[in-house]
């Protein structure tokens, strides 16, 4: 492509409102332009990268047995009513009416459409298993779009859905997708982790993993072992029962006057004690029943673990009025000792090891000291109810937990029969009996993947594309267009390199050499070839973008030289 004709508007300054490197560089290098808040146009350079990533995805999905189709972006609202998600999905779901006042939604996800499609076309076990996928635009009305295409209202996604007759085949499909995703993100040049995760709004009770690209700008925190492959989203990272039950203290329960000491910080400062000796009590309404969760003062209760432990539909933190009504006191002074009979008390594993703890007395400005679980209050059960912390032992018994920030680029779910039962997607088994189809769901944020690549592959001067996703193979520059030797050599090399199979961006603009060098670094193509002062001698300067290595090479040696350095690229 001749750059003189190429639609590639660049920016010298960091655009206002672009807070992270990927957003800044994708704007500055002319990959994207904002059309509205959270809505972007992909310019030719950005579109080429999209196509490279999409091609990698297609190759790995096809190799794993997937079949590509394309579903509509506009979906009938009644399908979402059938699944029960029309009201549950929330304000992120974009809704509209046609001229006949019929209700539609813009596809935020396609579980309903694909399930209805398979329901109407597949009726026998002989047609299963099956894996269908698409690459398509999705829409979610983000409350606060930010970080460019990392959190936008319109984005490109690959979503796949597997359909099986039994859990064993679902496991095979899940493993095939897990391995395909691993291959995809490796080929994209990403440093990532596959982490155990929560299913969230998609649903499903089976396994689920997120594929997280390690990055300081990530909005999720990964808990991983420093000595094994264990990794999980911090929200669900499990903790083993590693605590021995403490002996009863010699001193009996005693009431403390603690005026205005409502928080853990108030108590540690006011009583001059360690927060690990405190018992933190939090009241939840779990499917409308009051449950008091108790953990150590230096730990934080994890609501997702609470919900999963109780297999609950609704888990809510009790409001101030709920606390007064149920516990008979104010927030900040509640505790398990002498709690009302209707309140179920459960404790995190670590509470077992507390011998002489301090907890709320269910009286304003009062706490108890010398508290011992089981002696002073009845514990319904112990369990893993807290957020993991750095330094905790890894649940696989290998090493300790460390934290890292991550960008979610992929997610795989075992949906089970959640959607097939709701929408009546059944097959006839060998005995002619109707059975619900067992489903899996597998998504990749294509546009997010590009932003994640940029986050991991850039420097102060611009982008540094991995070879597999680079929009062009190399950048050919004529440094002084007024010099006929340079122009002739540039034209000759342009045609020669294209015939050799290279995708070339040819900077034939009538610009200064400094401008061309800056744009070349900004675009970040893996190899730069510059026709300069030694053009008359047939010598060009070749630079590898990633490490800055430069060599003068005669054009007769250029094919072999390019072949040799390509092995160093990834």
UniProtKB/TrEMBL annotation:
This chain's protein is named: Proline--tRNA ligase
Q: What is this protein's function per UniProt?
A: Catalyzes the attachment of proline to tRNA(Pro) in a two-step reaction: proline is first activated by ATP to form Pro-AMP and then transferred to the acceptor end of tRNA(Pro). As ProRS can inadvertently accommodate and process non-cognate amino acids such as alanine and cysteine, to avoid such errors it has two additional distinct editing activities against alanine. One activity is designated as 'pretransfer' editing and involves the tRNA(Pro)-independent hydrolysis of activated Ala-AMP.
Cellular component (GO) terms are:
cytosol
**What InterPro entries does this protein map onto?**
aa-tRNA-synt_IIb, aa-tRNA-synth_II, aa-tRNA-synth_II/BPL/LPL, Anticodon-bd, Anticodon-bd_dom_sf, Pro-tRNA-ligase_IIa, Pro-tRNA-synth_IIa_bac-type, Pro-tRNA-Synthase_IIa_type1
Q: Where in the cell is it found?
A: Cytoplasm
Which reaction does this chain catalyze?
tRNA(Pro) + L-proline + ATP = L-prolyl-tRNA(Pro) + AMP + diphosphate
Organism annotation: Alteribacillus bidgolensis
CDD domains xref list: ProRS-INS, ProRS_anticodon_short, ProRS_core_prok
The coding gene here is proS
Q: What free text does the record give on domains?
A: Consists of three domains: the N-terminal catalytic domain, the editing domain and the C-terminal anticodon-binding domain.
A biological-process GO annotation: prolyl-tRNA aminoacylation
């Amino acid at each position: 492509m001749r750059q003189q004709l190429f639609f590639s508007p660049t920016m010298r300054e960091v655009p206002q409102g672009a807070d992270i490197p990927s957003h800044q560089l994708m704007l500055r290098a002319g990959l994207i332009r904002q059309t509205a808040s959270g809505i972007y146009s992909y310019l030719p350079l950005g579109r080429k990268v999209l196509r490279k990533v999409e091609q990698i995805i297609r190759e790995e999905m096809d190799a794993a047995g997937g079949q590509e189709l394309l579903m509509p972006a506009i979906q009938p609202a009644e399908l979402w009513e059938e699944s029960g998600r029309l009201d549950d999905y929330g304000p992120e779901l974009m809704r509209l009416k046609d001229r006949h006042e019929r209700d539609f939604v813009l596809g935020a996800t396609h579980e309903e459409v694909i399930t209805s499609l398979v329901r109407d076309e597949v009726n026998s076990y002989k047609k299963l298993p099956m894996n269908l996928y698409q690459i398509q635009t999705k829409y979610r009305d983000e409350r606060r779009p930010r970080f460019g295409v990392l959190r936008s209202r319109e984005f490109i996604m690959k979503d796949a859905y597997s359909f099986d007759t039994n859990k064993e085949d679902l496991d095979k499909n899940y493993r095939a997708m897990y391995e395909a995703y691993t291959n995809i993100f490796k080929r994209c040049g990403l440093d990532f982790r596959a982490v155990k995760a929560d299913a969230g709004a998609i649903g499903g009770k089976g396994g689920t993993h997120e594929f997280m690209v390690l990055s300081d700008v990530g909005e999720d925190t990964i808990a991983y072992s420093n000595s094994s492959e264990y990794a999980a989203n911090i929200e669900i990272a499990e903790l083993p029962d590693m605590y021995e039950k403490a002996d009863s203290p010699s001193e009996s329960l005693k009431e403390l006057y603690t005026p205005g000491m409502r928080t853990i910080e108030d108590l540690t400062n006011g009583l001059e004690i360690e927060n690990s000796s405190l018992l933190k009590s939090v009241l939840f309404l779990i499917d409308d029943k009051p449950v008091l969760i108790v953990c150590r003062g230096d730990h934080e209760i994890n609501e997702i673990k609470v919900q999963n432990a109780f297999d609950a539909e609704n888990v809510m933190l009790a409001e101030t009025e709920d606390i007064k009504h149920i516990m008979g006191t104010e927030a900040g002074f509640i505790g398990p000792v002498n709690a009302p009979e209707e309140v179920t008390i459960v404790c995190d594993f670590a509470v077992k090891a507390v011998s002489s703890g301090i907890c709320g007395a269910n009286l304003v400005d009062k706490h108890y000291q010398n508290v011992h679980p089981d002696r002073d209050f009845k514990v319904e059960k112990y369990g893993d109810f807290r957020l993991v912390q750095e330094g905790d032992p890894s649940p696989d018994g290998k090493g300790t937990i460390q934290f890292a920030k991550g960008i979610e680029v992929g997610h795989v779910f075992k949906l089970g029969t959640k959607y097939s039962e709701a929408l009546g997607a059944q097959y006839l088994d060998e005995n002619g009996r109707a059975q619900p189809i067992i489903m899996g769901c597998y998504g990749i944020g294509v546009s997010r993947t590009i932003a994640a690549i940029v986050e991991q592959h850039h420097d102060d001067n611009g982008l540094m594309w991995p070879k597999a996703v680079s929009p062009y193979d190399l950048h050919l520059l004529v440094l002084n267009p007024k010099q006929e030797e340079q122009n002739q050599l540039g034209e000759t090399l342009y045609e020669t390199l294209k015939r050799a199979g290279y995708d070339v961006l040819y900077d034939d603009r009538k610009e200064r050499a400094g401008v061309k060098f800056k744009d070349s670094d900004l675009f970040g193509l893996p190899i730069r070839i510059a026709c300069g002062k030694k053009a008359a001698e047939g010598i060009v300067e070749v630079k590898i973008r990633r490490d800055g290595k430069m060599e003068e090479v005669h054009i007769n040696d250029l094919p072999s030289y390019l072949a040799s350095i390509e092995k160093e690229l990834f």
